[in-house]
Target: Kinase-like domain-containing protein
Amino acid sequence: MTSHQAPSHSTLQFLRQEIKRARRKNDRDQDFVDIPSVQPLFTEAAIHQALGECGFLPNHRAIFTPRIQRECFPLFALLVYLEEAWLIKVFLEKDVVALPVEEGRFPYKAELRDGFKNVFLDEQWAFKPHFFHLGRFSRIHRHAIIPIIEKERLNEKDGSFGAISRIAIASSFHDTPHSQETIVARFIRKKIKPREGAEFNFEKERDYLGLLGEVQNPNIVKLLYSYTYRDQNYLIFPQASMDLGEFLRNTEQFGRFAKASTLYTALQGLTSALDDVHNLNLPDKFNGSDFCRIGYHHDIRPANVLVTPDSFLLADFGLSNMKDPAEQKSETEWKFGKGDYFAPECYKGHLAHGDVGRAIDIWALGCMLLEICTYMEDGASELKTFRRSRLSTFRPRWKTGFFFQDDHVKAAVLDRIQHLLAQPDNPALWNLAESIRAMLTIAPTERPSSSRVHLYLMHACTVALFFECRWSMSDFVTEVERHDIIQPSMLGNLELLRLKSWGEVLGLYTMDPEPLHLMERPGSNNRARTTAILNVQATLVRLKERFHDSITRLRNLDRAGDDKQSLATLENELSTYTMEQISSLFDSLPRSLKKKADHRFRECMGSDVVSSSHSYSSLSLAIRSPEVSHTQLDIPEVLEFEDTAPRIREGKRHIETQSMVTTKSETPEEHASNHSSLRSNWYVWDHDINVAIPATLFPRSDEENDRERPHRPSVLEAIGFNNAECPRNSSIEIPADELFSITKGFTIL
Model:
C-alpha cells in the first residue's frame, strides 16, 4: 500500500472506497474514475489479497495477479467497484481483458445477477475515459466519456468558422508537458461550426496546422489535440495569457512588454510566423527533395494573435490555405472576415468580393503593427482616438475604420506614421514606422513580401537590442567613474567604440535593412541568415545583461566599502567577457562587412597609422579633452600596445609591449621619421601599476624646436619630473594612478 493501509479483514472494501473517492464529473455531468490516481493502490500484494477474499486458490492467485497488473487493471477495478471481483477469472479465461468490452464479447455466466450485464456495459466507460495523446487525431466513440471538467464559452472570441471555449482537462488524461504539476490544465478549444463544408474545413485546418507544427516555429500556435465526437469536430490549443485585442485594451503594459526590446523581439517572431505560413518549406531527409507550399492566412486581426508575457503567436487558421507553387493562379476569392484590416483589393467596386493574394496579409499586418506602436508609445486612450479618426462611410449606412478610402491611404493613418517617425532618439521605432509605410501601399504588387517584412523586423529588433546594449555599457562606465577606477572606464569606452563600429557597418544607425541581408552567406538560405542574426541578437542580450549585473555588483561593493581586490576581479572578468563577446560579433560578419567594421573602428580611434592587420584584442587607448588641447598638454593622442608577451621575472608579472605612438599634429609619414618602435615596460604587483615611460615619447622643453614656440608642459613635468634631468634614452617608472590623475576630465572614447 502507499498512503493508505487496507484493513486486513477487507482489502476489497478498502479498494472499493478508494475508487469511489476517485470518481469525478465532467462538463456534461458524466461520472468518470481517475484511474491513474488509484492504480498505485492495486499493488501485487493487494491484488493477491483481494483474490483470496474472492475464494481463489493459491495457484490461481499466483497466475492471475501478474496478469491483472500487466493487462487488465481497469477491468479488475471495475469489477471490484461493482462487487463482482470474482468474475475476473471468467474474463481472463475468455481472453477479454481490455475496456471497453463489446456486448457480443461479454462472457456469459449463469451466476450473474439480473441486469448486471447492462450495468457493466454502461459503467465501463467511466473506467476508460478518453486519453488525449499529443498531436494525435481521435475519432471518439459516442459513449466514451471525455475528461473535460470545466468549460467556459468565449463568445467574443468566436471566429468565422469556430466557436471558442476555455476548457480544463484532468491532468491524468493528457500528455501535455508538465501536466503533472497541477490537478487540471487549461486549454482553448475550437469547435467547428456546423455548416456546409464544415468537415472539409476541419480537415483542411487540422492538416495545415499539422504541417506548420513540423516547422516548429515558436510563434505559430501549436495544435495539441484534435478529435471528432458525436459528429462534432474539435481542435485544442494551449491557452495563452490573452489575445492581442485584450492586450491593446490594457491601461498598463502586460508582462515584460515595458521593455522596448521585448516588443521588437515579439514582432520579429510574429513576422517569422507569417513568413513560414506564406513559404512553407519542409526538408525531406530521405529523398532530398523539399516539400514546398505557398500559403496564406487571410484573417490577421488582434483576436487571432495570442499574447504571452514576452511574445506574440499567430493563431486561427480557419480561412488559411496552401497551394503548390507550380499552380498558375495563386489568387483566391476573398471570404468575408471581421475587423478593420481589410486590404483595398478585397472589394471590387465596393460591391463584390475580389480575388486576392498573400499581399492582403501584409496589409493587415501593417495595420496591426501601426496600432501596436500607437498603443506602446501613447497608450490605450490614444489608440482609441486613432481608431475614431479612421471612421468613414464605406458604403451607405456602413461606417468602417478601414485604413484606406477609395484608392488612397487615409490621412489619419499617414499622420500616425509621421508621428512615430518624429519620436526623438528612437531609431528602432523609426525603422518600424518606415516598414509599416511600405506595407500599407495601395497596390498589392508593390507591398513587400513576407520574407522582406521579416527582414525589416529583424533589423528593427537588432537596432533596439543594439542600443539597449550600448546604453547599459554607458551606464556601467558612468558607475565606474563614481568609484574612481580608470581601467574599467578605458575598457568600457574602448569596447563601446568597437560596438559602435560594428553597428554602423550593419546599418543599425540607418533605416536600411540591406546590410542585414548581407548576413546571408554564399550558398546559404534565408533560414541560415535568420539563425545568424538571432545569434547576433543573443550576444547583444548577453552583453547587456552582463553589464547590468556588473552595475549591481559595483553598487553592492559600494555599500560594503570599496575593495580594490574585488574591483580588480570584477574588472578582469568583465574585460575578458566583453572582448570575447564583441569579437564574436565581428566574427559573425561576412568578410566584406568585417573589413568595413575594422576600418571604421580605426577611423573612430583616429589611428590611420595602424596597419590593417592590427589585432583589436590588444589594448588601444584614445584620449580626448574638451578642456585641454594637445598643444597645451603633450599627451599622445593614441597609444597602441601590441604583441603582449607576459612572463614572470624577479617575482613580478612583467609585460613587455611594442608601442606605437602618434600625436595629433603628426602625419603618418612624420611619425615614421620622428619615432622608432619603442619598448614600454609595465610592472604589475598586487594590482599597483608602474608605467615605465620612455622619455622620447614626450618633447623636452629645452629642445631646439621648442624654443621657437610657447612652452608645453610634458606629462613628466606635470607630475613633478624634470625632463632636463632625464637622459634621452632612459625610462622613468611612474605610478599609474599618478599618471592618470593628471588626465581628470579627459574622456576615454
About this structure: The radius of gyration is 37 Å. Residues 11-127 form one domain.
